[in-house]
Design a protein that fits this description.
The structure holds two protein chains of two kinds. By secondary structure, chain A is mainly alpha-helical. Chain A is built from four helices and one strand. The radius of gyration of chain A is 28 Å and the shape is flat. By secondary structure, chain B is mostly helical. Classes of the chains: A mainly alpha, B mainly alpha. At the A-B interface, β1, α1, α2 and α4 of A face α1, α4, β1, α5 and α6 of B.
């Protein structure tokens, strides 16, 4: 076993990750492109102007959907129920089986630890 | 660390359990995944390339690598390739901290660099998705970030439970390390009934969080074929797609392997010190069983809506992992 401290181990792991990244890039990308991919290149007029693959024609319109808007939309729709729970705290929780299960689980663990359930 | 120790470490990193081993394992596990999912669907899966179609994933990988690297005008040319290459390097480095390595690395609190290396792949996949201007890719990245924000806290909390509990058991191994957790995992389960309850809760949370981080159904909302075309990977083909898939498949080796070590008893019932070969074989057999289970669930389950997935992760998975973490600290 190779023993060390966390700082040296982190630096070594980071260095190895960089080495691995370099090997993967050179062998799996650069070498394959040099041997095979570059021989397949065909220059056609207008091909380098494509904005999105498959469109077949160049376009100056911006099709980008803001990632932040998608993220906020998903999180808002997912957590909308939390606001309802907070606003009607008592009734919503008391109807939720998971709430009772969490209470029971926490009690079991707390009582077990209090009763000396340790190794 | 001296040069004498560094050379065998680099050799381990390149050969076993490093890059070459990872490539072989990716081919093997993807063959298993394709065969198992095919049989669930009453198909045969790959049969032509190699014995029983074993080399089909390798053939597909090489085919993609040998294609022309096409990008469109507004896409990022180099960042996705660099990010995916570094992600593979980082995931491979994690294996050196585990008992499967002949001469593993261990240090007090080395769970921290391991979790830090795990984050490289998630960031790389986000960079891949954001590397093209396609609106389907952007939607996929937004969904992916929402999924990560909900699953990563649960994953970290649940994976820390066996680390904390094993560090409270007597051992000469470095505390809060992957090695200590792996070799004492079975002892943690049997330490007391309270420990077993805490580990069971963390087990459930960790399993579900792992499924979410690996984007397996029902949590494959970032890809969501037939819903948002192919999500983050819509614009990708050729070597870019090959490297991106390589990252995803390597994640499906490293993360379930860590789950096996932390929650499935690691090398138990064999002793790692007395019979290391039997111990390593046991670890891999447990990992394969877990992997097949994940593939079956992925094949059978439908997909969550994005908001359903996020709500599920926060309400059930994170709550369980947080309770388990608090209990592990208090134990």
């Amino acid at each position: 076993m190779i023993l060390g401290n966390v700082v040296s181990v982190t630096l070594i792991a980071t260095g190895l990750a960089g080495l691995g990244g370099a090997i993967v890039y050179i062998v799996l990308y650069w070498l394959f492109q040099k041997l095979y991919g570059s021989k397949l290149k065909v220059s056609e007029p207008g091909r380098d102007d494509l904005v999105m693959c498959g469109m077949g024609y160049p376009s100056t319109r911006n099709f980008v959907v803001p990632v932040s808007r998608v993220f906020i939309d998903v999180m808002t729709r997912a957590l909308r129920g939390v606001r309802r729970v907070v606003e009607s705290f008592g009734s919503a929780l008391l109807e939720d089986w998971f709430f009772y299960a969490i209470i029971a689980l926490s009690l079991i663990i707390a009582l077990g630890l209090a009763a000396g359930g340790r190794p | 660390m001296s040069a004498e120790a560094l050379v065998p470490l680099v050799a381990q990193y390149i050969l076993y359990p490093g890059l070459l081993f990872v490539v072989a394992m990716v081919v093997f596990t993807q063959w298993i995944a394709r065969k198992v999912s095919a049989r669930v669907m009453f198909r045969y899966g790959p049969t032509w390339v190699g014995p029983f179609g074993l080399l089909q994933p390798l053939a597909d990988f090489l085919k993609l690598l040998a294609k022309e690297d096409l990008t469109n005008r507004l896409a990022s040319r180099y960042m996705p390739i660099i990010a995916t290459s570094l992600a593979v390097g980082a995931l491979t480095a994690i294996l050196l901290f585990t008992p499967v390595a002949p001469n593993p690395i261990a240090a007090p609190f080395d769970i921290v660099p391991v979790l830090y290396l795990l984050v490289w792949s998630t960031i790389a996949i986000a960079i891949v998705g954001m590397g093209t201007p396609n609106p389907y890719s952007n939607i996929g990245v937004g969904r992916y970030l929402a999924l990560l924000a909900s699953s990563e806290p649960a994953l970290l909390a649940s994976y820390l439970v066996p680390v904390i509990l094993s560090s409270k058991l007597p051992s000469t191994l470095p505390e809060y390390s992957v090695m200590r957790t792996s070799l004492l995992s079975a002892a943690v389960w049997g330490a007391s009934w309270v420990h077993a309850v805490i580990m069971a809760v963390a087990f459930v949370a960790a399993f579900l969080a792992t499924m979410a981080v690996l984007e397996l159904r029902p949590f494959d909302i970032p890809e969501a074929e037939a819903e948002i075309y192919w999500g983050m990977f819509t614009e990708y083909g050729g070597p870019r797609l090959a490297l991106t898939m390589f990252v995803l498949f390597t994640e499906k080796i490293v993360l379930p392997l860590l789950f096996t070590l932390f929650f499935l008893g690691g090398p138990a019932p064999f002793s790692y010190e007395a019979s290391p070969v039997a111990a390593i074989i046991t670890i891999f057999l447990k990992y394969l069983a877990l992997f097949v289970l994940m593939v079956v669930i992925d094949t059978m389950m439908p997909r969550f809506r994005p908001d359903q997935a996020i709500r599920f992760l926060w309400k059930y998975v994170f709550t369980l992992s947080f309770i388990a973490l608090l209990a592990a600290i208090a134990a």
